Automatic annotation (TrEMBL):
Subcellular location per the Swiss-Prot or TrEMBL entry: Membrane
GO biological process terms held by the UniProt record: oligopeptide transport
GO cellular component: membrane
Identification of the protein by name: PTR2-domain-containing protein
Species assigned in the record: Mytilinidion resinicola
Keyword match Membrane: yes
Length: 543
């Protein structure tokens, strides 16, 4: 094997590339392990149930055929559900990393999830609604479902990546062309999370069918479907057990990490907890970590800096299942349910994901352009900012159309001209929302793929569920911010809410890139810690 920087010698296949080879050779990923696909299918079933139910909540709470509680209550409860669903991953992560491991934790919370879906279905039956059990049952259901999905969510994303084992780059000569390339684990992890997110979006297409079931049969029918689909997911999870790579829990590792961070703060240095640094300073008290763990913790703190900018993104995504559904309801649907339009975002994602994975990213790598995580996240910020800005334009068009102008569905003309129990909407076709969901779809790919990937690849092996839960916690913060905006989620003030959110996204995304863009330039250095960890593990086993 050549030394780093030697431009003449060539590294043999299977060995790590030199610095010169890293600069000049094309990077490729590897095939995904079969177990990763099994875990992805389980997540598909879970997301089918989550979105198939959650996408109907706005209508279920609002309409007289459901709970009949009004738009403000519906928006508040829908946002609360999102908030609690992404607060509970902390509990799931602690139980997985310290006590039970990821697989057992997922299985336990799946049982809780099933109970919640059962409550949701039973209390939505006509006989239950007639006897006043609907609203109390709904509250109990969303709390239970949120607890279940949170415990699963923080562990499925790390579990799927656990199935891939390579930690170091390696040289490979392609049999067909003879081209020498670098197998880069970072690319494979990105592909894993593209597949993972693709399965999430496939599952979320349930929102295409469930609104029509709701319209034809009532809310109980789609809630029953989501319950049955989740049972299928649990069955696949159990049957696939023998194929998984399952990492054991690490005891009090989370407390250990917080102790190390505490020493960083007290010592006013990120290197303060290192045993080598402590020895130089004459501190003889033993600590339960080594220098390598502190380096991994420093990398994790960089990831947490990135996540600190994410809450504003979730304020935007929260609008999809609340205010943007209501916005569609203010326009002519010509037979389409108003909660159908949000499914366009999923369709955009499923059309664009294969194009990104099979065409765009390989083309960029062929030209030696590495579309690094911070650049992808920033692109996602700008895409979703454009989406919310377009939502403001749509709202402006609604306010400039009759019969109710700036108070859609609320004037006498709408009630007199409507049919059955539904008032007449303003004369704008809801298809005008389409570009909005195209922007949201592009943003989802760059944000919702890169976020979990970054949480996994930038955290120590023993803390991956916990760091994943911190990433998911940003969703809860975003939902809390969205909850604070409920008071301005009414006509005609809501148009200025959209404008304010859009401006905030553009500003925060730009600040994030200016502040943290350097992390892309240091990506290989931080990823090299995985190689060091693999070497340390081998030495411990052999020693």
């Amino acid at each position: 094997m050549s030394v780093d920087g030697d431009e003449g010698a060539q590294t043999v296949d299977g060995d790590e590339p030199t610095l010169y080879e890293k600069r000049t050779l094309r990077r490729v990923g590897e095939k995904l392990p079969k177990a990763a696909y099994i875990v992805a299918v389980v997540e598909l079933c879970e997301r089918f149930s989550y979105y198939g139910a959650q996408g109907l909540f706005q209508n279920y709470i609002t309409k007289k055929s459901g709970l009949g509680k009004g738009r403000t209550t519906a928006t508040a409860l829908t946002i609360f559900f999102t908030f609690f669903s992404y607060l509970t991953p902390i509990l799931g992560a602690i139980l997985a990393d310290q006590y039970f491991g990821r697989y057992k934790t997922i299985l336990g919370f799946a049982v809780v999830y099933t109970i919640g879906l059962l409550i949701l279905w039973v209390t939505a039956l006509p006989v239950a609604l007639e006897h006043g059990a609907g609203f109390g049952g709904f509250i109990a259901a969303i709390i239970t479902i949120a607890l279940g999905t949170g415990g699963i969510k923080s562990n499925v994303a790390p579990l799927i990546a656990d199935q891939y084992h390579r930690k170091t780059m390696a040289i490979k000569t392609l049999a067909k062309t003879g081209e020498r390339v670098i197998i880069d684990p970072a690319i494979t992890y990105h592909r894993i999370y593209l597949v993972y997110y693709g399965c999430i979006e496939l599952g979320s297409l349930s929102i295409i069918g469930t609104p029509f079931m709701e319209k034809d049969y009532g809310h109980w029918a789609p809630f029953l479907l989501t319950f049955c689909m989740f049972v299928v997911g649990i069955t696949i999870l159990i049957l696939g057990r023998r194929y998984y790579t399952v990492r054991p829990p690490q005891g009090s590792i989370i407390q250990t990490a917080f102790k190390a961070v505490g020493l960083m703060i007290l010592g006013r240095s990120l290197d303060a907890p290192k045993p080598s640094v402590r020895a130089i300073k004459g501190k003889t008290t033993r600590v339960p970590w080594d220098d390598h763990f502190v380096e991994e913790l420093k990398r994790t703190l960089n990831a947490c800096k990135v996540f600190a900018f994410f809450p504003i993104i979730w304020v935007c995504f929260t609008q999809m299942s609340s205010n943007l559904v209501a916005q569609a309801g203010q326009m002519d649907g010509h037979g389409l349910p108003n909660d159908f339009m949000q499914s366009l975002e999923r369709i955009v994602i499923l059309l664009f994901l294969p194009l990104l994975d099979q065409v765009i990213m390989p083309l960029l790598r062929k030209r030696r352009i590495l579309f690094r995580p911070i650049a992808r996240i920033t692109t996602g910020f700008y895409c979703i900012g454009l989406g919310v800005a377009y939502a403001a334009i749509v709202q402006h068009l609604i306010y400039n159309a009759g019969p109710c102008w700036k108070h859609p569905l609320a004037c006498k003309a709408a009630k007199a001209g409507g049919h059955s129990a539904d008032p007449l909407p303003n004369h704008v076709h809801m298809a005008i929302q389409t570009p909005l969901y195209v922007f949201f779809g592009f943003a989802s790919i760059f944000l919702n793929v890169t976020g979990p990937e970054y949480a996994y690849t930038k955290s120590p092996p023993s803390l991956k569920s916990f760091i994943q839960s911190l990433y998911l916690l940003t969703v809860a913060f975003g939902a809390a911010l969205a909850e604070a905006l409920v008071s301005v989620s009414s006509d005609p003030k809501i148009i200025w809410m959209y404008v304010g959110i859009a401006v905030s996204v553009f500003v925060i995304g730009t600040v994030m890139y200016l502040y943290l863009g350097y992390l892309d330039r240091e990506e290989d250095k931080w990823n090299d810690l995985d190689r060091q960890e693999a070497v340390i593990t081998r030495e411990k086993k052999s020693g």
